[in-house]
Structures are given as C-alpha cells and as structure tokens.
Here is the input.
Amino acid sequence: MRDFHERMHAAGVYGLWELASQMTKHPEPKAVAHIWKASLLDAMIREAGEVVPVGEERRALQLFNPGLDGRWATTNTMIAAIQLLLPGETARAHRHTPTAIRFIMEGDGAYTAVDGERVYMRPGDLVLTPSWAWHDHGNETDTPVVWMDGLDVPLVQFLNAMFFQMHDAREFPLTKAHNASERLHGAGGLTPTWVKERPRSSPLLLYSWEATWKSLQALRDEKGDEHDGIAFEYTHPQTGGPVLPTMSCWIQMLRPGERLRAHRHTGSAVYCVVQGTGETIIDGRRFAWEKGDILTLPSWALHEHANRSSRDPAVLFSIQDRPVVEALGLYREEAG
Ligand code: 1HN
Here is the structure.
C-alpha cells in the first residue's frame, strides 16, 4: 500500500481518497479578517513620501493578508493599497489587465488620466481604471493626495491572464476633455443614445462624493437592508450592473447607534472607512474602526456592522468580488 502511494505520487497521481478533506462542507478561506489602522497606514505612507521617490513604479503600500503566506493579496482575489502622490509628482503611464479602482481619502484636485482623459478627484470620489486602459496620475496641487487602490491582481494571476506594458512617455497623450466621461454618462438615469459602445467596465470613470452623499442623505430614513444598512452599489450607467466585470463597489451608511444583523456570503470584500466610528464583528472577533481604517472580509465569514456613535452616521466604502462569484453561479448567502 505505501509503496503503491509512493509510486503514484512520483508519477504525479493522487487518489481522491487522499484529498477528501479538501471537499469542505463550506468555504474555509486561508485569508483572515484583518484591520489596518489609519494611524499606522498614515504614518507609513508619510514616511514613504520622505524616503521613497516616485520612479517607474507607484508609491503604493500593498496590504498583505496575514493568512495568505506573503502572497500579494488582501483577499484571495483582490489587492488593496494606499498610494501617496506629493505636490508636483506624476506617476508614469502604464496599463495592465488587472482592473483598478481608486477611492480618494485625502487631497483635492489631483488627477488620474485614463485612456487620454484626465479625471480630477476629490475626497470620497470613486475613480475607475478598466482592464488594459492606459493610466497615469498627477498632483498639480500644493497638498499631498492619498487614495486607496483596489485591484483584482490575485484573481488575474490565478487565471494566468496578467499582461503589463509601460508607455514610452511618462504621460499618455490627452485626447479628451477633462472629466469628459462624467459629462457624457454622469446624468444619472439618462444615457446618451448616440454612444453605441457598451464596454464591460462602466464608461463613467468618476462617481463623485457629492452625488454619493446626496443619495445616502436622501434615503437616510428608509429601513434599508437588515444586514447592510443604507447600502448602494455603484452601477454601470448603461447596464445597471456592477461597475467592473470582476469587482463591485458599494457605499453603505449606518445611522447613529445602528447595529445591523449578522450574515455570511460567498465572495470577499475590502472596506475603507469613509467617516464615523463603529465596529464589525467577524466570526466572533471584534474590529473597532474609524476613518481611514482598511478592513478585509474573507468569503463566508459571519459578519455584522455597527455604528458606535449615537450622534454621527458612519460610512463604509467597499470593493467586492461578487460579480465573479455571481457570474459563476456560486453566490450564496445565509443569515447569522
Ligand atoms: C497600479 O498600477 C496602481 O496605477 C496602483 O496607480 C496600485 C497595485 C497593484 C498593481 C498595480 C496605479 C497597484 C497597481
């Protein structure tokens, strides 16, 4: 028997009877729930600003999940990073098959240029960089700008679909008016009929905090979702679907004193605390959070959010891999 197994393994053959324990009853992710505190991230990104120049690569701190053995991943499918661009700096033009979002945390008036269009950004704005779009960044203001990057790098690596290309020049040539996509697609419920392309990623590259906050305020007295509160998904203006094929983006508000009900679902998430103070209990562990903290949620982990302030609302932005899970018929949800 032992000799047989040794010969099998040497030949690259395993018996299903040896692997049965991997057919788990439910997902058992190696990724763990984890929080990166704003105080730590803020000090580190500022130190990076002093000691690391923006050269060929971005000054972006990658958040490695402690359960993933040094893999370049915040969840099994997504990477989150904190990026700093100091006054006068530019980040060189490149493109890659991983899809990216930026969620602006600090600084008003820097830009990301996406395929020839400069998108000027303010705190709370969501900016998209679709797969294979050329992009460079610049900060022409006199204050630093800090944002969270979210990308599907681990998923693209797993699928062996990584392509990366550096542009010859530092900046990709501008071919469109600044914030052109917002003018064209940002009306909210009105789609220009003469635009025939239906890109997989949202053609609207900027979702402004102004509009997002207005929507949160307008519905603040609704019941909302018992697990997610007053939660909105950012949508593709032509299809109503997720903004990106591999990642959906959400904004959710917890009213003062509100404690939501626990649930679990397949698919992972990374949260960025936009404002307020609260806590999320994940599989029995309590994570207290405040503005600027980054919190990661593995698939199938039981979680409940609460606002710890009796005065102020709390707001969470998140990226989620749910579009992938749903497209494959693997989405499942269960109340706790
Ligand atoms: C990237 O290209 C950017 O373009 C930021 O600013 C973060 C993290 C992983 C891989 C590529 C950027 C990134 C990234």
Summary: The two ends are 45 Å apart (CA to CA). The helical segments are 2-10, 16-19, 38-51, 153-158, 180-185, 209-218, 322-327. Residues 58, 60, 79, 81, 83, 91, 100, 135, 137, 149, 151, 153 surround 1-hydroxynaphthalene-2-carboxylic acid (CB under 6 Å).
